TrEMBL record:
Gene behind the chain: hemE
One of the Pfam families matching this protein, by short name: URO-D
A GO CC term assigned to this protein in UniProt: cytosol
Protein name: Uroporphyrinogen decarboxylase
GO biological process: protoporphyrinogen IX biosynthetic process from glutamate
Taxonomy of the source species: Bacteria, Pseudomonadati, Pseudomonadota, Gammaproteobacteria, Alteromonadales
Keywords: Cytoplasm, Decarboxylase, Lyase, Porphyrin biosynthesis
GO terms of molecular function: uroporphyrinogen decarboxylase activity
Organism: Ferrimonas lipolytica
Amino acid sequence: MSELKNDRYLRALLRQPVDVTPVWMMRQAGRYLPEYRATRAEAGDFMSLCKNPELACEVTLQPLRRYELDAAILFSDILTIPDAMGLGLYFETGEGPRFKKLADNKEAIEALPIPDPEQELGYVMDAVRTIRRELKGEVPLIGFSGSPWTLATYMVEGGSSKDFAKTKKMAFAEPQMLHMLLDKLADSVILYLNAQIKAGAQAVQIFDSWGGVLSGPAYEEFSLRYMHKIVDGLIRTYEGKKVPVVLFTKGGGQWLEAIADTGCDALGLDWTTNMHEARQRVGHKVALQGNMDPSMLYAPVPRIEEEVERILGEFGHGEGHVFNLGHGIHQFADPEHAGAFIKAVHAQSAKYHK
Ligand code: CP3
């Protein structure tokens, strides 16, 4: 496999010197791009797109053709694991993900298999291999998974939720049942991410989108403990190269020290966390990724540039910053504004790396 032409993203995650701050966007391949909507229509629906390695590769590369992004992210979804466990994932237009079967009782949880990544999830590994080949060493490829807690919320609730009532009821009334589910998910995620690394992913990120809805002690018990188990089980060096691990708990700003203590390489931050304070708290241990509010892309371009400057200044001089949005780019974001955002990060950050 060819050497990387642009390794800024990997270098920043390892807190090594870079010329400018690397940048990518969560959900950079998605509905805000007309070319994505066209390819999805060609595939039929979202899951058919995920399960077609050639088309998944095509949409992964689309944002890279438009913008000077410093990383590509595998096009897939965090819910592929519960789908591979037999829950039957489908998408209801405008209503988000749904499952045909739930994992909301002991029998159902006991019956869940741990998917073999090269079998039931073979389409994901094929996509990773295809994308890695087609990237031709331009930028690194990020693999990803959901955290056990975040996956469990979808499997217990049957889809998206506002209050996570069923999952929290299980956590507090029948904790051993939820622990059984989380344990199986952690084992599945370890196999899944290690298979992505062997297939060609050069860094991996765990999306804990719903960790922030828990109290501190419940976060430790039901989310962080399992991400820690995953970090301990991951391949950290592959073919002589470090494979950085990024943990992103949305709403996790209060727990940065504990998250950094898992031994991960970097923390994803949402926009509610101050970069300067985060760096003082954990910057000697981990790199930081973030954290512009994705809604800022609705602002006029000069306002976006001002916000990029503010965040660059908040992080300050030196290494260990990967610029990103604090969560996924919105469906109605203007692609021109996304382009202005990425240009601004590169243009305005050189002075922080002298
Ligand atoms: O970042 C990327 O470009 C890679 C692709 C990616 C998708 N989902 C594609 C997707 C990634 C990294 C994800 C992760 C994901 N999926 C998360 C964690 C990140 C986060 O946003 O918190 C979560 C919670 C999911 C579950 C999920 N998948 C939801 C809630 C939805 C519906 C979202 C909506 O706005 O309707 C999805 C579907 C999904 N996953 C889409 C995309 C591009 C939109 C589906 C479509 O094309 O119709």
